[in-house]
Write a structure and sequence with these properties.
Blueprint: E1 8-18, E2 30-36, E3 39-42, E4 53-62, E5 68-74, E6 82-89, H1 92-100, E7 110-115, E8 127-132, E9 135-143, E10 151-159
Antiparallel strand pairs: 1-4, 1-10, 2-3, 2-5, 5-6, 7-8, 8-9, 9-10
């Protein structure tokens, strides 16, 4: 990937899972895979936990703002890992905020815009895009699909790359 096509880096902080589905006898050993285009990244496995805290940063290179897909799996030693739901988010509103406000003279914790839950996105509640501690940040609670229960709490932040193309 050449630098002239790179817009920047999207850091996806996978904070925690809430009320995840049981896939073993009484619990699950969950981990998260995130995908954007051909990129695929994975968190560590948290053993026997339906409210796992991963607290992990996964960083995607952004050329085109493609949707980001998250999949939660239950790690099994002796058989294929079980699916525990998936979610998807579009970070175009986040990218628009980054483009609009490249001057960094905003007061800390300024809300740039709010993304509302709709039938077509996986947001469980309103999601604010803010200017926090010198960076654009978006906290999201994503409702998992194709599963009986579960949510993921994540946070997006943007990393500008020297020499990357202007947005």
């Amino acid at each position: 990937m050449s630098m002239d096509h790179l817009l920047g880096l999207l850091r996806v902080h996978i904070h925690k899972g809430v009320n995840l589905a049981i896939r073993d006898l009484r619990s699950s050993d969950p981990y998260v895979i995130i995908r954007m285009g051909k990129q695929k990244l994975k968190t560590k496995v948290v053993k026997r936990n339906l409210t796992p805290v991963w607290d992990e940063d996964l960083t995607l290179s952004v050329v085109d703002p493609l949707p980001v897909k998250l999949e939660v799996y239950d790690r099994d030693l002796f058989s294929a890992d079980d699916k525990m739901g998936d979610a998807e988010f579009d970070f175009t509103p986040f990218l628009e905020a980054v483009k609009m406000h490249l001057k960094n003279d905003l007061p800390n914790n300024t809300i740039i815009t709010t993304v509302k839950p709709t039938r077509t996105n996986c947001l469980a509640e309103e999601s604010n895009i803010t200017w926090t501690d010198g960076n654009f940040v978006q906290n999201m609670v994503l409702r998992l699909r194709n599963v009986e229960c579960g949510e993921l709490e994540i946070k997006l932040s943007w990393i500008s790359v020297p020499g990357s193309r202007r947005m």
